[in-house]
Each structure stands twice: as structure tokens, then as C-alpha cells.
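Q: My collaborator sent me two sequences in one message, no labels, and asked for predicted structures for both. Can we handle them in order? The first one she listed is below.
A: Yes, handling them in the order given. First sequence, followed by its C-alpha cells:
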Amino acid sequence: MSGTWIQEEIKNMEDKKEKPKKYGFATIPPSIYKGREENEIRLVKVFKRDGWKCQLCGKKLKPKDRGKFIDNAPELDHIIPWAKGGEHSYRNTQCTCRKCNGDKNDKELGQLRMFG
């Protein structure tokens, strides 16, 4: 089968007539979210907590750049990635710039928080 592993998971899921969950623009196959607690995360709350600063490179980020396709755009990052079993919680999320978040990919970088 060609394509990425997530495309293969979605195809397998469609063959079994399972429905994926939608998170923003992402479609998450059941094998990834199965058995996980779902918590609503407010992006701005995480960005404010982290002082609108990239937690990986330390760069100051601007709220007006949120959602833009530029290196300095603030993004929500899972410290322990979803793809590796990380939880969707305040203590497992951090503010990063788009460049660092893209470079990080599915690596575990950052400091897991004791409290949200």
C-alpha cells in the first residue's frame, strides 16, 4: 500500500466502516485516539501561559500571526506527540513557533509540566 501510515489507517478504517474524528483540519483514525481521554484545550490559554514565547527556541511570538503560514506563527505543540501516545492536556502542550514545531515533527522535545 502506498502513502503515509495515517492514510493507510484511514483506508483500513473506511474498509471496516469506522468513522474518524475530526480535529480542526485533521482527521484522526481510531487507532490513535482509541482509549484516550479527550480534553478541550484553549490555544490562547496555552499561549498566554507560555508568555507568547516559543518554548523550544525562546523567540517572542505575536498574537496577530496566529494561523499564518510563516515561521514566527504561534502554534500549539504536544510535548509527547499524539502519534506516540501523548495526552491532549494543558500539561502536555506548549507554545512553539511554526518553524520549531515543524522541525520537531514527532520527537519528544520540551519540558512536561507538573501542572496545566
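Q: And the one she listed second?
A: Here it is, processed independently of the first:
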Amino acid sequence: MSEANATLSQKQVLTKALILAKEAVTWDTNNKISEALAAYDQSTTLIGEVLQQLSQGGSDRQREEYRRLKSIVSAFQIEYSSL
């Protein structure tokens, strides 16, 4: 996890990622493509950091959370590539 996010919980990081994703949608809706792409990129980077942590965990809950977040990242990547 990046140094800035090292003290945040996974939930806090994911909340921050969700806020950025919502901002990206707003930028995209308003045809502000460069801003939307930057927000999508930041959001997926944060989710990727949490995924990295979860991939190192061994519990059933962590594996399920990993799969769920991985599908979210895939959806963002599809949206991101269409811009």
C-alpha cells in the first residue's frame, strides 16, 4: 500500500476509491475526459492496493473479498478502456 494510505484501513481506502469513482462518473458525464480518466486511474490504483493485501490473506472472507474487488476492477477497466 502506498505510504499515504498505509495508516488507512482497507474500508477507508475502498471508501476513498468509491468517492473517486463517483467523481470520475461525474467528470465523464460532463465530458471532462482527462479529469475522468485521472479519477478512474486513482480509484483503480487504490482498489489494486487493497487487492494486493487481500491476495496475501488466507481466510475465506479475504478470498471472497478479493474476488469481489477483482470483478469491480475488471468493470472499471472495461469502462476506462472505452473512454
